[in-house]
Amino acid sequence: MDRRVHEYVDSDTAQMNINKYIEKEVFVKIIDLQSKTYLKDFEHYFMDNNSSLSMTSEGGRTWIMLEREGGMYRAITIGQSQDIKKEIKDILSYMKSKYSSKNKKILFYRNLYNSKKHIIFYEINIDLYIKYFCNLETGDIEKNLFYEISKDYFVEALVAYNTSPSDWNYSFAGMDKRFYYHIIGSYAKEKGQDNAN
Asked: Which listed residue, 89, 114, 116, 120, has the most CB atoms within 10 A of its CB?
C-alpha cells in the first residue's frame, strides 16, 4: 500500500499559482493534445529546445501535465528526468495504447486520454521559477554544484506543493521526497508560528 504523505495548497491557490506560472512563462507549452498537429508540435518543441530552457548540469528537466477546462487549469502530474522527451513520448504511447494491460500507469494514462479531457504538457523553466518564486540569491547559488544537481528535484517538489496535482508522487528514495518533506515541514512550522501569534 502506498503510504506517501501529501499536503498541498488549496485548489483556489493552486489555480492562481498555475495561472501566474503560465503568465510569467515559467510553464512553457510543449504540446496541447487537442491540437490536430500535436505530434508534429512535440517534435518541433524538442528541436527548438533541445538544450532546454532549464537543464541542470546533470541534464535534469521538469515538466507538468495540466487539464484545462474553460479558463481553469488543474495539475494532473509532474515529472522530472534527464530525458523528458522520452518520458512524455512514453506517456503519449500509454495514452494511445490498445493493448490489454494491468499496469496501473498505462491504465491511468489511457483512461485520461479516453476521457477526452483537454490535456496540455508544459516544461517548467527551472531557473525562471526559482528567480520569480523562491527568493533565492542566484549569483552564488549558480556556482554551487549541489544546487546545480538538485534544483530540478527542488522545483518538482515545490511546484507539486503549489499546484496540487491529482496524480503526483515523489520517489520513495528520491531527492524530490526529501525536498517535499522539507517544504511541507517548513510550511507547517510557519503555520504554527502564525497560529501562536
From this structure: 120
Residues of the chain whose pLDDT is less than 50? 1-3, 54-57, 190-197
Whether this model's pTM surpasses 0.85: no
Closest CA to 168 of 75, 73, 62: 75
Task: Report pLDDT for 48.
Answer: 77
Q: Name the β-bridge partners of 79.
A: 63
| Exposure string for 11-38, b = 16+ CB within 10 A, e = fewer | eeebbebbeebbeeebbbebbbbeeeeb
Sign of the four-CA dihedral 18, 19, 24, 29: positive
Is residue 170 within 8 Å of 176, Cβ to Cβ?
Answer: yes
The confidence score (pLDDT) of residue 118 equals 94
Cell of 14: 493552486
Please give the pLDDT value at position 132. 81
Beta bridge partners of residue 68, listed in sequence order? 73, 118
CB 167 within 8 A of CB 76: yes
pLDDT at position 96 is: 87
**49: Cβ–Cβ under 8 A, 6 or more apart, which residues?**
28, 123
Residues 6+ apart with CB under 8 A from 95: 33, 109, 110, 112, 113
**What pLDDT sits at residue 106?**
86
